[in-house]
Each structure stands twice: as structure tokens, then as C-alpha cells.
Amino acid sequence: MGTKIFKTLDEQIQILRAKGLVIDDIDYAKDVILRENYFFLMGYRHLFLENENSKLFKNGTTFRELYSLFYFDRQLRNIMFKNILIIENNCKSIFSYILSQKYGYRENEYLRPSNYNQSPDKVRQLNDLLKKMKRQIRVNGSQHEATKHYINNYGYIPLWVVVKVLSFGITSELYTVMKLSDQKEIAKEFNVESEDFGVFLPILSNYRNLCAHEDILFEHRTQKVIPDNKYHRLLDIPQINDEYIYGKGDLFSVVIIFKHILSKDDFRLFINEISYEIDQLSGRLNVISINKVLDRMGFPTNYKSLLEID
User: Fold this and answer.
1) Crossing angle (nearest 10°) for helices 194-212 and 168-176
2) pLDDT per residue over 112-123, tens digit each?
3) What is d(CA 127, CA 23) in angstroms, rounded to the nearest whole number?
4) Which residues have CB under 8 Å from 6's CB, separation 6+?
5) How far apart are the first and last CA of the chain?
6) Which residues contact 107 (CB under 8 A, 6 or more apart)?
7) What string of DSSP letters covers 239-261?
8) What are phi and psi for residue 289, nearest 5 degrees?
């Protein structure tokens, strides 16, 4: 088994140059590599390589161009993350309101298994989820001022406060074990079908975690895919074997989810911010086109037309 040994900044620069990367400012490149990490930066090299089997950069690829894609992805993560957090907060608020109103606001009420889907294929998942919720309440409840206040003064934590310590992953899983009537009531608040909403949530949770941990975002794909909808059709997204090539399990699928769930003002701001970053990146690219980046993101070139579709 081979080993990876420590390389100095000068040695890392030599490696990059040996692979054909143009570095016109060594001090700048060394500063970026030191701050951003050679390994993480190289995660963005693939679009700039001669071909998928090559380790060499396309002729004329510069360090600044490579870093521009890295920086673009960071800006993209920040924009996506803040909008996912808006939806996360909306979900937690609506979930807690509806469940508290119907089943009670004390732990021994809203954590009662009979409040949820009792079908045989859901029992194990439900029991595991309720255990996770109890554990998060127990472990994290004393670490937040709001939850600590209720524990100390009332001896219980209402669901609308508990959601503060629940992860979005657990919150989205909670939806899957709700009774169908509760799922429909919640989905109605977001103006989507209950089945579609059940698909949207784990995709959003997946991208949320990716953003929070600063993983590569722009080319990420999820196992789950969103259902075909009017936005695929009205944007005239191409198909291969009757499958849309964009907007299914890629970053653009999240944009379509945003179109469904965010307010019109929030969505317009989101598209404007994304468009600005795409334009900025386009001006910094030389050996590849912005359309190649959009393709890897799953974005059709007419993505801004979503703003005009009701």
C-alpha cells in the first residue's frame, strides 16, 4: 500500500506546475494553499483536466482560474445554506404548531407513538426516531437558554421549543412517520403535495449538511430525485430516455424546491444572488466556459426564467 507524505508549500507548487497549471504569482498561490488546503482545492480540478482519465490540466489553465471555481462554490454554499435555513425554520415552526395543537405540548404527549403512523412498516422507524428525539432533548436540552428555561421553570419542554435542538435530519424524518392527515395539513401550508414534500425534505437536509461542512456543492448529486413537474417542462429541459437531464437529484433540483417553498421575494433575491455569482465566475474563466460549470451544476442556461413562471 502506498503512502502519502507531507509536502511543503514549495513542493506542492512544483507538483501543480508539473501537472501543467500556470502559476504566475507564487506567493499568492502559496498563501491560498496554506489557508484553503491543497487537498480541498484539488477537489475542483476535474473540469480543468485534459480529459476524465488525465491528471494534466488543460493548456493555459491558471491557478487563479482554479481558485475562482473554489471561491464560487463557497459563495454558492453561503447562498444555498441561508435559504435552506429559512425553510428549516419554517418547517420546525409549522410542524410544532400543528402537532402541539392536535396532540399536546408536553413530552409525554407529543412523543406518544399513537400520535403517529402505526402501520407495520413504520413501527421500527417510529420507535427509533422517538428515541433519537428523546436523546437530543436529554443531551442538548440543558445547552440552550430557551430549553433550559422551560426545564428549570416548568419541568418540561414544549415542542415549539424542542425543535430548537432537533437536527433538520430528524425533523424531516419526523414528517415521514406522521399520519397522512397531518402530512397533508403540513404540506398544504407550503402549497405542495404531501408526497412531494416528503421527497423535498431529505434532499434539503442532505444539501444543508453538505453546506454546513463545506463540502463541494456545485456538482453534488443525491440518491433521491424530485418528481417531474411543470418547471421541467416549461423550461424545456432536455430529456434522455424520457428522463430530464437537469433538475432531478442535482443542485437545480434544490432550486426547484426553493421555487415551490420560498416566498416570491425570497426566491427572487435568491436567483439574483446566484446569478450575480455565476456572472462573476464567468468573467474569471478562460479555458472552460461558464456553460460547462452550469451543466455540472444541473442548471439549464435559462434557469432565470423560473422567476417568470407562476
Assistant:
1) 160
2) 999 999 999 999
3) 57
4) none
5) 57
6) 134, 137, 156, 157, 162
7) EETTEESSSSSSHHHHHHHHHHH
8) -95, 160
Q: Which three cell numbers stand for residue 119?
A: 402501520
For 182-213, the pLDDT digits (tens) are 999 999 999 999 999 999 999 999 999 999 99
Q: Which residues contact 171 (CB under 8 A, 6 or more apart)?
A: 88, 91, 92, 95, 163, 201, 205
All three cell numbers of 111: 412523543
**Chain position carrying cell 415549539:** 160
pLDDT band at residue 155 under the 50/70/90 scheme: confident
Please identify which residue in the block is written with the cell numbers 506546475. 17
H or E segment to which residue 276 belongs: helix 264-282
Q: Which amino acid is at 31?
A: D
At 3, the pLDDT band (50, 70, 90 cuts) reads confident
Structure-block grid coordinates of residue 305: 426564467
CA atoms of 94 and 160, how far apart (whole Å): 9
